Amino acid sequence: MLFTSRNFWRGKRLSRNFLGLRRFHSRNGLTGLLHDGYFSDLLPPKSVKLRMESGNGMDLSEFLYPALQAADFLYLYENYNCRVQIGGQDQLGNINCGLNLIQRRLGRHAFGLTVPLLTTPDGTKFGKSSSSSEIGSTKLWLSKSKLLPYTFYQQILNFPDSMVSAKLLRQLTFFTPERIDSLMKDHASSSHSRPVQRSLAQELTLLVHGVDGLQSSELATRIFFPRGNSADGRRKRSALDVINEDLDATERNYLMECLRSSSGLLPVINADLPLGQHAVGEWFRQVLLQTADIHSDTTVNLKVCIHKGITLNDVVLFKPSNATSTDLRFAEPDVFTDSALIDRINTAIQRRDSATGLSVLKIGQSFLGFYDCVRSDMH
User: Fold this and answer.
1) pTM of the entire structure?
2) A Pfam family matched by this chain, by name (predicted)?
């Protein structure tokens, strides 16, 4: 739920569950709670029926949870006249336990309100970590402070086709039925162009991160995922080709504004060029450490970055590796003193964009790899 004003919280109260549950710490309190809770209250939910029919059964904690949630509802009803509990559709059974407990204990009526869950076409619940980047498992946060707009945009753009449905479009957008039908037809005929995912990414990024969040994300996507071949036709176009050849002065200036550390729009590392040949290896190691820090997931670290393979300005610095022992060795600082690696880093630095001083760092060899942009001051 989104609240646009702090005034919403005036006169509202946040209550700790402990306050309502502490009276059940004693044997008499717990016995009274269980006496008013019926096993039949748990039977309607499909999940319970499936578990019982599968032969796997359910442990005691799974039965106690609905009872404790019901007790919490009872406490709020008695002390704060709270008559409505709101939850996702998967909470229907728990809410119903609370309604029945209030009816049996107090002889009064309470109410439950459920909202539809976001699900994939096969019915799987769509959680905040349903999508993941190549580098690490990136949660799809709706808070601006939790995820960069570009990462948010890319996460939605890379939804697998298995998550695409007209229902998802109806739940997450205000698209007309005609537009939804058109998008689903486009998806059926040319899913490789990701028409549904792209429209969702645009709509949701605009909603969560605003106009600058969307525009910067689309510009970065255009740079990081270029189409076609180079002018001489000998290789595929790179991100630097787009920066050098495709961006006009206005777009280049806007890109530089988006890369300011204070903007919080794009993944960027502000790093001065290394001072002296002896500092090149350690400089790049620090750049990689900062790259890992950009990701909120704690599983992202130096080993993961190197394991995926690293390219700086189209120069391959580390090839992808599947050997665990190699990963461990790469995590040691000594690997960054290797003369051949330092030569490759120097070559890559010289290839930075001359007009902006920008370098492009690629983690992973997949087309869906996550990219960080490194700004190097000119010396």
Assistant:
1) 0.74
2) tRNA-synt_1b
